[in-house]
Amino acid sequence: MQIIEPKLSLAKKLTTAAWIVSGVVFLLVVAMRRISIESSIDFTWLPGFYSILNALAAVTLIMALIAIKRSNAKLHRRLTTTALVFSALFLVCYVLYHITNEATSYCGEGPIRTIYFILLISHILLAATTLPFILVTYIRAFTNQFALHKKMARWVFPLWLYVAITGPVIYLMISPCYSH
Question: Residue 47, CB half-sphere, CA atoms under 13 Å: how many?
Fold first, then answer.
């Protein structure tokens, strides 16, 4: 059996980068409500598209869990990387939409309105706080710190999956409210 040495120096650098990227993303998402860019391109199709990206991330995460449960680390690594790519593309599309379009207010009434806002608030809070932990969990595996990766993934995975699932659910709930 081959012993794989952890790459601690690389892990330290990547972890610092992950926290910086997470901070920049957080500030960008907070600031995007104040940024308005006029565009001749119609980006009103983006919410449906980025919701599909979120759903694909969720499916890919579930497949990654199944792969690791079956001891297929190579497939798990590929699927987790794919989920990260889907999530990154989601983020780019999400920001692009929100800096080129006005916010849409939820139009539902009654108990469904309460459910919508519970899902929305929990989704936003978890999306805002889990990004650095998702990245650090990924870095732990990438730098051969598998025990730490596994320990973090036990709680990071369900949070990431929740965010990836609730995104499309929230979109389906608000989609009748779009004016286009």
Answer: 22
With tokens 């449906």, the residue in question is 48
Higher pLDDT, 62 or 31: 62
User: Considering only CA atoms, which of 12, 22, 15, 142 is closest in space to residue 76?
Assistant: 142
Report the C-alpha gap between 65 and 34 in whole angstroms: 38
CB contact at 8 A, 97 and 43: yes
Q: Which residue has the tokens 């759903």?
A: 55
- Residue where the block lists tokens 């699932």: 165
Burial class (CB in 10 A: 0-12, 13-18, 19+), 142: middle
Q: Confidence band (pLDDT; 50, 70, 90) for 180?
A: low
- Helix, strand, coil distribution of the chain in percent, nearest 5: 80, 0, 20
Q: Which residues contact 103 (CB under 8 A, 6 or more apart)?
A: 33
* Single-letter code of the amino acid located at 153: A
pTM: 0.90
Residue 47's Cβ-count burial label (10 Å; 0-12, 13-18, 19+) is buried
Distance CA 82, CA 72 (A): 15
CA pseudo-torsion sign 119, 165, 141, 82: negative
**Cα angle value 146/152/153 (rounded, 5°):** 85
